[in-house]
């Protein structure tokens, strides 16, 4: 019968040294190198590749190799951030341009109105022109729902509905670019207040028809805001994701500085590689590599 021997572990000096470090799962620089959200598994895979390629023979070489892994990881991060910088300046251009043009159009309209109406003072035109702010967008929808419920219950009531419309669209006497729900309400209210005699000659809508028209316009406005939110959310999510990637490189507000940062990492890596090769050759009793004449 074959006798089964219990494992005795490594017996050589090198084997015992390597075994003593088996519990070190990650490099000594990994804790400071890895940022939240970055993959430890990918970092360890990169580290193993360096170990397999360079076969460090003592602790000093291992420290140098760990520094090289950390540097290489930062270079990868710089490339990701470079891509994010480019995406930031390209992906959101059309969406941002549309929002900017809408605001500029409102400002132009108010400036024109100020020139043709002595004494006119341009003022903010209400929440509706700031719906790029998620809180403002949500509040606009809430007010529209409140307006809708009031009209459904008791019909058009300017004393109740007017202040709500003014919060959303601003002072109705102030200029604005496009026809709004506030304008639709005003026209419907004027029609609903006509006498039966005035209503008899031309075909005007009845008060009930005016009420339903306003309710339809409110429904359409709520639907428009909901669609705007749906269109904006993925854009803002991607914008946030890109911004996170950009911020992973310290002090890099622009692509030029980012590229300088990447270049400095490459130079540092080359110096560490030279230092590592020199240390490994000296440990093995080999002559150091010939200098190329460059001062590191």
Task: Give an overview in words.
This protein has 296 residues and is mainly α. It has two domains: 39-90 and 251-296; 122-247, no CATH class. The chain contains eleven helices and no strands.
Helix-strand topology string: HHHHHHHHHHH
Overall domain count? 2
What percentage of amino acids are in beta strands? under 5%
Summarize model confidence as the mean pLDDT: 77
Tell me the overall shape.
rod-shaped
Tell me the helix content: 55-70%
Could you give a short description of this structure?
The chain has eleven helices and no strands. It starts with 12 loop residues before the first helix and ends in a 13-residue tail after the last helix. By secondary structure, it is mostly helical.
Topology:
Blueprint (H helix, E strand, L loop, with lengths): L12 H8 L9 H4 L6 H15 L4 H30 L4 H24 L17 H21 L3 H12 L11 H12 L3 H5 L6 H41 L7 H29 L13
Helix pairs in contact: 3-4, 4-10, 4-11, 6-7, 6-10, 8-10
Q: What attributes characterize this protein structure?
A:
68% helix; disordered N terminus; 296 residues; 2 domains; mainly alpha; 11 helices
């Amino acid at each position: 019968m074959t006798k089964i021997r219990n494992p005795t572990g490594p017996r050589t000096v090198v084997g015992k040294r390597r075994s003593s470090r088996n519990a070190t799962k990650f490099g000594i620089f990994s804790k400071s190198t890895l940022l939240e959200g970055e993959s430890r598994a990918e970092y360890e895979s990169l580290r193993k590749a360096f170990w397999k390629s360079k076969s460090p023979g003592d602790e000093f070489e291992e420290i140098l190799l760990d520094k090289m892994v950390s540097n290489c990881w930062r270079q990868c991060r710089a490339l990701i951030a470079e891509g994010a910088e480019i995406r930031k300046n390209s992906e959101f251009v059309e969406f941002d341009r549309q929002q900017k043009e809408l605001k500029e159009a409102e400002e132009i309209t108010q400036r024109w109105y100020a020139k043709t109406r002595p004494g006119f003072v341009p003022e903010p035109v209400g929440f509706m022109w700031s719906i790029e702010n998620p809180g403002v967008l949500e509040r606009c929808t809430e007010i529209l729902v409140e307006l809708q419920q009031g009209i459904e219950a008791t019909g058009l009531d300017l004393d109740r509905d007017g202040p709500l419309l003014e919060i959303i669209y601003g002072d109705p006497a102030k200029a604005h670019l496009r026809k709004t729900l506030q304008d639709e309400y005003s026209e419907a209210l004027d029609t609903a207040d006509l006498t039966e005699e005035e209503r008899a000659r031309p075909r005007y809508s009845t008060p009930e028809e005016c009420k339903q028209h306003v309710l339809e316009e409110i429904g359409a406005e709520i639907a428009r805001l909901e669609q705007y939110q749906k269109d904006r959310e993925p854009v803002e999510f991607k914008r946030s994701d890109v911004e996170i990637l950009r911020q992973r490189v310290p002090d890099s507000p622009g692509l030029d500085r980012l590229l300088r940062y990447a270049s400095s990492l490459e130079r540092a890596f080359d110096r560490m590689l030279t230092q590592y090769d020199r240390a490994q050759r000296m440990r093995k009793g080999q002559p150091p590599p010939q200098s190329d004449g460059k001062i590191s």
